[in-house]
Amino acid sequence: MSNARSTAWDIYSQSKPQRRKTNARGEVTWFNWTQYPDHGPGVDVLNLHPGEGALDLGCGSGGNTAHLATLGVRSVGIDLSAKQLAKARERWPDVDDMELHQADALTYLKDTSTIFDAVYSVFGASWFTDPGQLLPPVRARLKPGGVFAFSQRPAVEGCYGCQASYIPRGPDEDPAIVKRWDYDPGVWERTLKEHGFVDVSASVLAPPSGSRRTGTLFVRCVQGG
Ligand SMILES: C[S@@+](CC[C@H](N)C(=O)[O-])C[C@H]1O[C@@H](n2cnc3c(N)ncnc32)[C@H](O)[C@@H]1O
Protein backbone atom coordinates (compact mmCIF):
# COMPACT_ATOMS: atom_id res chain seq x y z
CA MET A 1 0.00 0.00 0.00
CA SER A 2 1.45 3.37 -0.95
CA ASN A 3 -0.60 6.52 -1.09
CA ALA A 4 -0.28 10.07 0.23
CA ARG A 5 -1.65 9.14 3.66
CA SER A 6 0.51 6.06 4.22
CA THR A 7 3.55 8.03 3.01
CA ALA A 8 2.72 10.84 5.45
CA TRP A 9 2.55 8.35 8.33
CA ASP A 10 5.81 6.71 7.22
CA ILE A 11 7.41 10.16 7.53
CA TYR A 12 5.88 10.57 10.99
CA SER A 13 7.23 7.15 11.98
CA GLN A 14 10.79 8.12 11.14
CA SER A 15 10.62 11.04 13.58
CA LYS A 16 9.38 8.94 16.50
CA PRO A 17 11.68 6.96 18.78
CA GLN A 18 10.66 3.46 19.86
CA ARG A 19 8.70 3.17 23.10
CA ARG A 20 10.85 2.97 26.25
CA LYS A 21 12.12 -0.49 27.19
CA THR A 22 10.22 -0.34 30.50
CA ASN A 23 7.72 1.98 32.12
CA ALA A 24 8.08 3.65 35.54
CA ARG A 25 6.93 0.43 37.22
CA GLY A 26 9.57 -1.61 35.40
CA GLU A 27 6.99 -3.37 33.19
CA VAL A 28 8.07 -4.30 29.66
CA THR A 29 4.56 -3.94 28.20
CA TRP A 30 1.84 -1.57 29.31
CA PHE A 31 -1.18 0.37 27.99
CA ASN A 32 -0.91 4.14 27.55
CA TRP A 33 -3.98 6.18 26.56
CA THR A 34 -2.43 9.66 26.76
CA GLN A 35 0.47 11.57 25.22
CA TYR A 36 2.26 11.46 28.59
CA PRO A 37 4.22 8.49 29.96
CA ASP A 38 2.79 6.64 32.98
CA HIS A 39 -0.36 8.74 33.01
CA GLY A 40 -4.08 8.22 32.40
CA PRO A 41 -6.50 5.30 32.73
CA GLY A 42 -5.45 1.67 32.43
CA VAL A 43 -6.32 -1.21 30.16
CA ASP A 44 -9.24 -2.14 32.46
CA VAL A 45 -11.49 0.41 30.74
CA LEU A 46 -11.69 -2.03 27.80
CA ASN A 47 -13.27 -4.69 30.05
CA LEU A 48 -11.43 -7.52 28.28
CA HIS A 49 -10.76 -11.07 29.47
CA PRO A 50 -8.25 -13.70 28.31
CA GLY A 51 -9.40 -15.36 25.09
CA GLU A 52 -11.41 -12.35 23.94
CA GLY A 53 -10.48 -10.28 20.88
CA ALA A 54 -9.55 -6.61 20.51
CA LEU A 55 -8.88 -4.38 17.53
CA ASP A 56 -6.42 -1.44 17.65
CA LEU A 57 -7.24 1.11 14.94
CA GLY A 58 -3.94 2.81 14.03
CA CYS A 59 -1.72 0.70 16.28
CA GLY A 60 1.49 2.46 15.22
CA SER A 61 4.54 0.73 16.70
CA GLY A 62 2.25 -1.65 18.57
CA GLY A 63 2.92 -1.03 22.28
CA ASN A 64 -0.73 -1.19 23.31
CA THR A 65 -1.50 -4.08 20.95
CA ALA A 66 1.40 -6.08 22.38
CA HIS A 67 0.33 -5.40 25.95
CA LEU A 68 -3.16 -6.81 25.36
CA ALA A 69 -1.65 -9.90 23.73
CA THR A 70 0.50 -10.54 26.81
CA LEU A 71 -2.74 -10.50 28.85
CA GLY A 72 -4.09 -13.37 26.74
CA VAL A 73 -6.29 -11.22 24.52
CA ARG A 74 -6.36 -12.02 20.77
CA SER A 75 -4.90 -8.72 19.76
CA VAL A 76 -5.21 -7.31 16.23
CA GLY A 77 -3.49 -4.07 15.25
CA ILE A 78 -4.00 -2.36 11.93
CA ASP A 79 -2.12 0.63 10.58
CA LEU A 80 -1.68 2.49 7.28
CA SER A 81 2.08 2.84 7.69
CA ALA A 82 4.47 0.05 6.70
CA LYS A 83 7.20 1.76 8.71
CA GLN A 84 5.11 1.86 11.88
CA LEU A 85 4.28 -1.83 11.48
CA ALA A 86 7.95 -2.66 10.84
CA LYS A 87 8.78 -0.99 14.16
CA ALA A 88 6.07 -3.04 15.88
CA ARG A 89 7.39 -6.29 14.39
CA GLU A 90 10.96 -5.39 15.37
CA ARG A 91 10.02 -4.43 18.94
CA TRP A 92 7.59 -7.28 19.65
CA PRO A 93 8.86 -10.25 17.61
CA ASP A 94 7.90 -12.99 20.05
CA VAL A 95 4.48 -11.93 21.32
CA ASP A 96 1.90 -14.68 20.74
CA ASP A 97 -1.69 -13.78 19.89
CA MET A 98 -0.72 -10.51 18.20
CA GLU A 99 -1.71 -9.96 14.56
CA LEU A 100 -0.66 -6.91 12.57
CA HIS A 101 -2.08 -5.80 9.22
CA GLN A 102 -1.28 -2.90 6.95
CA ALA A 103 -4.70 -1.47 6.18
CA ASP A 104 -6.87 1.60 6.28
CA ALA A 105 -9.25 1.42 9.24
CA LEU A 106 -12.40 1.82 7.16
CA THR A 107 -11.33 -0.79 4.63
CA TYR A 108 -10.35 -3.28 7.33
CA LEU A 109 -13.58 -2.84 9.26
CA LYS A 110 -15.65 -3.31 6.12
CA ASP A 111 -13.67 -6.38 4.93
CA THR A 112 -13.28 -8.37 8.15
CA SER A 113 -15.91 -10.81 9.35
CA THR A 114 -14.52 -10.88 12.91
CA ILE A 115 -16.66 -9.60 15.76
CA PHE A 116 -14.41 -8.03 18.42
CA ASP A 117 -14.99 -7.76 22.16
CA ALA A 118 -13.42 -4.30 22.18
CA VAL A 119 -12.25 -1.77 19.60
CA TYR A 120 -9.92 1.07 20.55
CA SER A 121 -7.69 3.74 19.09
CA VAL A 122 -4.98 5.75 20.86
CA PHE A 123 -4.25 8.97 18.95
CA GLY A 124 -4.92 6.63 16.02
CA ALA A 125 -7.24 6.06 13.08
CA SER A 126 -10.35 7.18 14.96
CA TRP A 127 -8.82 10.68 15.11
CA PHE A 128 -7.93 10.62 11.41
CA THR A 129 -11.20 9.26 9.98
CA ASP A 130 -14.53 11.03 9.52
CA PRO A 131 -16.64 9.74 12.44
CA GLY A 132 -19.72 9.68 10.21
CA GLN A 133 -17.95 6.99 8.15
CA LEU A 134 -16.12 5.24 10.97
CA LEU A 135 -18.79 4.75 13.64
CA PRO A 136 -21.20 2.47 11.65
CA PRO A 137 -18.53 -0.15 10.78
CA VAL A 138 -17.04 0.01 14.31
CA ARG A 139 -20.48 -0.72 15.73
CA ALA A 140 -20.99 -3.54 13.21
CA ARG A 141 -17.72 -5.28 14.12
CA LEU A 142 -18.18 -4.93 17.91
CA LYS A 143 -20.21 -7.38 20.00
CA PRO A 144 -23.26 -5.96 21.82
CA GLY A 145 -21.93 -4.76 25.17
CA GLY A 146 -18.38 -4.46 23.80
CA VAL A 147 -16.37 -1.33 24.55
CA PHE A 148 -15.26 1.24 21.97
CA ALA A 149 -12.74 3.70 23.43
CA PHE A 150 -10.37 6.24 21.96
CA SER A 151 -8.08 9.09 22.94
CA GLN A 152 -6.67 12.08 21.11
CA ARG A 153 -5.69 15.69 21.69
CA PRO A 154 -8.67 17.87 22.61
CA ALA A 155 -10.10 20.22 19.98
CA VAL A 156 -8.76 23.76 19.87
CA GLU A 157 -11.64 25.99 20.91
CA GLY A 158 -13.55 27.12 17.80
CA CYS A 159 -11.73 24.69 15.46
CA TYR A 160 -14.20 21.86 14.98
CA GLY A 161 -14.82 19.20 12.35
CA CYS A 162 -12.18 18.30 9.77
CA GLN A 163 -8.82 19.96 10.50
CA ALA A 164 -5.38 19.74 8.88
CA SER A 165 -2.55 18.02 10.77
CA TYR A 166 0.96 18.87 9.58
CA ILE A 167 3.73 16.27 9.67
CA PRO A 168 7.15 17.94 9.30
CA ARG A 169 9.23 16.57 6.39
CA GLY A 170 12.46 18.56 6.38
CA PRO A 171 13.75 22.13 6.25
CA ASP A 172 13.33 22.49 2.45
CA GLU A 173 10.02 20.70 2.00
CA ASP A 174 6.43 21.46 2.81
CA PRO A 175 5.01 19.26 5.56
CA ALA A 176 2.88 16.25 4.75
CA ILE A 177 -0.78 16.87 5.60
CA VAL A 178 -3.38 14.45 6.96
CA LYS A 179 -6.96 15.18 7.99
CA ARG A 180 -8.19 14.79 11.54
CA TRP A 181 -11.60 15.29 13.16
CA ASP A 182 -11.91 17.41 16.33
CA TYR A 183 -15.00 17.97 18.50
CA ASP A 184 -15.81 18.94 22.06
CA PRO A 185 -16.73 16.12 24.46
CA GLY A 186 -20.46 16.98 24.35
CA VAL A 187 -20.53 16.61 20.57
CA TRP A 188 -18.77 13.23 20.80
CA GLU A 189 -21.32 12.06 23.36
CA ARG A 190 -24.25 13.10 21.16
CA THR A 191 -22.73 11.65 17.99
CA LEU A 192 -21.94 8.28 19.59
CA LYS A 193 -25.46 7.99 21.00
CA GLU A 194 -26.90 8.81 17.55
CA HIS A 195 -24.84 5.89 16.16
CA GLY A 196 -26.23 3.34 18.62
CA PHE A 197 -23.63 3.47 21.39
CA VAL A 198 -24.69 3.63 25.06
CA ASP A 199 -23.02 4.41 28.40
CA VAL A 200 -21.13 7.12 26.55
CA SER A 201 -18.62 9.26 28.43
CA ALA A 202 -16.31 11.84 26.89
CA SER A 203 -14.08 14.23 28.81
CA VAL A 204 -10.75 15.97 28.73
CA LEU A 205 -8.36 14.31 31.18
CA ALA A 206 -6.02 16.70 32.96
CA PRO A 207 -2.33 16.53 32.03
CA PRO A 208 0.14 15.28 34.66
CA SER A 209 0.18 17.52 37.73
CA GLY A 210 2.45 20.51 37.31
CA SER A 211 2.29 20.34 33.49
CA ARG A 212 1.15 23.45 31.63
CA ARG A 213 0.42 21.44 28.49
CA THR A 214 -2.94 20.30 27.16
CA GLY A 215 -4.91 17.36 28.49
CA THR A 216 -6.25 14.35 26.60
CA LEU A 217 -9.71 13.82 25.13
CA PHE A 218 -10.81 10.38 26.31
CA VAL A 219 -13.99 8.78 25.02
CA ARG A 220 -15.52 5.46 26.08
CA CYS A 221 -18.82 3.87 25.11
CA VAL A 222 -20.52 0.52 24.71
CA GLN A 223 -22.13 -1.13 21.68
CA GLY A 224 -25.81 -0.78 22.46
CA GLY A 225 -27.05 -3.98 20.70
C1 LIG B 1 -0.10 9.39 16.23
S1 LIG B 1 0.13 7.74 15.69
C2 LIG B 1 -0.42 6.80 17.12
C3 LIG B 1 0.08 5.37 17.08
C4 LIG B 1 -0.27 4.49 18.28
N1 LIG B 1 -1.70 4.28 18.43
C5 LIG B 1 0.32 5.03 19.55
O1 LIG B 1 -0.42 5.23 20.52
O2 LIG B 1 1.54 5.22 19.59
C6 LIG B 1 -1.25 7.56 14.56
C7 LIG B 1 -1.24 6.23 13.83
O3 LIG B 1 -2.49 6.05 13.18
C8 LIG B 1 -2.25 5.48 11.90
N2 LIG B 1 -3.39 5.85 11.03
C9 LIG B 1 -3.82 7.09 10.71
N3 LIG B 1 -4.91 7.03 9.92
C10 LIG B 1 -5.18 5.71 9.76
C11 LIG B 1 -6.19 5.00 9.06
N4 LIG B 1 -7.15 5.64 8.36
N5 LIG B 1 -6.17 3.65 9.09
C12 LIG B 1 -5.19 2.98 9.78
N6 LIG B 1 -4.21 3.60 10.46
C13 LIG B 1 -4.21 4.95 10.46
C14 LIG B 1 -0.93 6.12 11.47
O4 LIG B 1 -0.27 5.38 10.46
C15 LIG B 1 -0.15 6.15 12.77
O5 LIG B 1 0.62 5.00 12.96
Question: Explain this structure to me?
Answer:
The protein is of the alpha/beta class and 225 residues long. It has one domain: Vaccinia Virus protein VP39 (Rossmann fold), CATH 3.40.50.150. It is 25% helix and 29% strand. It contains 6 helices and 9 strands. The chain has helices at residues 4-15, 63-70, 82-91, 105-111, 131-140, 185-194; strands at 53-57, 74-79, 98-102, 116-122, 142-152, 161-167, 176-182, 197-205, 216-223. The strands form 2 sheets. It has a 7-stranded mixed β-sheet, sandwiched between helices. The protein has a two-stranded antiparallel sheet with strand order 6-7. Helix 4 packs parallel to helix 5. The longest helix is centred in the N-terminal third of the chain and has 12 residues, at 4-15. The protein is globular, with a radius of gyration of 17 Å. The N and C termini lie far apart (34 Å). The mean pLDDT is 97. The structure holds S-adenosylmethionine (SAM).
How many DSSP-defined strands? Answer: 9
| Residues in β-strands, percent | 25-35%
Largest sheet: 7 strands, mixed
- Stretches with pLDDT under 50, minimum 5 residues: none
For the CA atoms, what is the radius of gyration? Answer: 17 Å
**Cα distance spanning the termini:** 34 Å
CATH superfamily descriptor: Vaccinia Virus protein VP39
> What is the SS-derived class?
alpha/beta
Q: Which geometry do the CA atoms define?
A: globular
Bound molecules: S-adenosylmethionine
The tally of domains stands at 1
What is the count of helical runs? Answer: 6
Fraction of helical residues: 25-40%
Q: SSE order, as H and E?
A: HEHEHEHEHEEEHEE
